[in-house]
Amino acid sequence: MRPWARVAAVLFVIGYGANQFSPLMVMYRERGHYSALVVAAFFGVYVAGLAPGLLLGGPLSDRWGRRRVLLPAVVASIPASAVLALGAFSQALLYTGRFLFGAVTGVAMAVGTTWVKELSQPPHDAEADEGSGARRAALALSAGFGIGAAIGGSLAQWAPWPMELPYVVHVALTVPVVFSLLRTPETWLPGAPGRSWRADLRVPAVAHPRFRRLVLPAAPWVFGAPAISFAIQPAALGAARTAGFGLIFATALTAVTLSANVGIQSWARRLERHSRTAGARLGLVLIVAGTLVAAVTAATGSLVVAVAAAVVLGAGFGISLVSGLLEVQRIAEPGQLAGLTAVYYSLTYVGFLFPVVLAALVGVASYPVLLVAVAVVAVGCLAVVVRGGRRASAEV
Fold this sequence. Notes:
- The protein is mainly alpha-helical.
- The chain has one domain: Growth Hormone, Chain: A.
- Helices cover 78% and strands 0% of the residues.
- Helix 4 runs antiparallel to helix 7, helix 9 runs antiparallel to helix 13 and helix 12 runs antiparallel to helix 13.
């Protein structure tokens, strides 16, 4: 296995473990008898753990090196899955497990994405082009998200021990990846002794005009798109519409979303070669369109429309993710890549709070109305990106 592939395998198993929970939300609502708001909070507390993991993981790896930070995080994902397996009917354990897995995922995404980028260039890989690192990291993470959801949801629907077995499978997949990581070459020397923690945590590149104009307004919609597709749509459809197969339908929505995401990423990379701002624009256009289709799902209860929304939202997710990572890698100065990647991912995961916000507001307005309002906000962000792209082109 090539060095970059070993780190990509880490992103895969972390994505697998993080997103297998998405279709299981239906199981917790139906078999655990948790309310829709509590289940959405299980989804959201993951972000509360993710943010510190991201924001600390990147700078720490610039201080101590990639392996010394990433390896403990991957090992910690094993007990995090164990807590979730043990907490089937314990709200406190489910919150704890999701928070822990969020923290682990944050560290892995910030450090792993950076390490894949550094291993996708000479002397580790002489054949890779400029965008190989971003593409490989995005594909590995996205494949983990999709396969984890598909297998986890299928096991929960048809296998014995539905609330435990998915997490056991994740643990079994993670163990060999831990040993593989031990043989991966380090790419970053530790920071200079005496450097302050405040200096390590500072990421000056966030003030870069391209980051503020192109990355910041688009970032929350990266994971907002899949959250709308496979977290909000099942809640909007309701248990009565999918009686008897709610879990497997949620699994199918997740798989369709992430298949569209993975399928479009290679094309998204080619799009970036023609225009460095086209990906950000097109990604948001697709997310606006997909959100409006999801509003139709909520209004009509149509399962077919829900699948169509999943395709469009998944495509917007894939283009936006690749575009954002490439932009971050272009902006970052040497020694700032891990930190800026961490900030970017922190902003993208704001989108995973959408289900919590909409579940809390559903008593004020219906899901169709709320989703149209979300689309309007996305249009505003699109306008900011379009204007920022024009200014960036004029400055070049």
